[in-house]
Structure prediction request, 292 residues.
Amino acid sequence: MGWQNLARDGGIAVANVFIIMIPILLTSALFSLNAAGDFLVKELRQKADISIYFNESVSEDDILRVKDKISQIPAIGKVEYISKDMALADFRARYENNPIVMESLDEVVGNPLPALLHVGADSPDQLEETALLLEQDDYSDLIYEINYNERKEDIQKVFAFTKNAQKIGLWLFAILALISVMVTFNTVRMAILSRKREIGIQRLVGASRWFIRGQFLVEGLIFGLLAGSLSFFAASAVCWWAGPVMAGALSGMDLWDHFIANLPVILAMQFGIGIGLGAFSSLIAVSRHLKV
Prediction:
């Protein structure tokens, strides 16, 4: 009966499938956007670092010991050592198109740039803790400058921005998910409403409640399977096409690789939402018409 009703519904059935696809595709998009957002947050927070500059006479071994000490602080994300030679090479690469700076550098005898450490963390508190640790007398002979105070305000702004962006993302997900569920429920309800008289006749001739529910349950399951299948192919095509584009915009973030790596989760999510919405909406919407 469920298959017969589905074939008879025609355009309504097609509309229901595409309506159920809305929350599936929306959830899939939010899943991928959340991954891209997490990547951006991580990248931004890595750029919110501090630099520790060492005196000319400090050996590499002493610098590496300081590096190991900093690494022991909880929630420190990275501690990158930049030697004098690396610092000079980076400086030359950055200003290679500025002849005035390059001429001035060539006139300087030796390498004027110090060795340094770049330190990143998961929160501004860890960066402040690092700066306070290295301002102790034990390190006064090794370090001549820590740029935390200069960057403190910018660092706090970056962390506040990323935190607010994550909150906005969660609220957006919740609101759009609620809208999708409401649209799906009302669409299925309208399809059942169009057969209100038929449901009443079946009840009058003795059809049980679960016999009638079963028809719409099968329809809902089929709607969900079709919507999940179409959504999967649509999401696959979009991720395959957008993968190289996003990789170019966000170096290190490949949407297609993320899609493949999370394929079991995406399949379970798409078919679970499709089948769940189709079946649940059908059962709830038909219940009010069974009291004849």
The first strand starts at residue 50 and ends at 54.
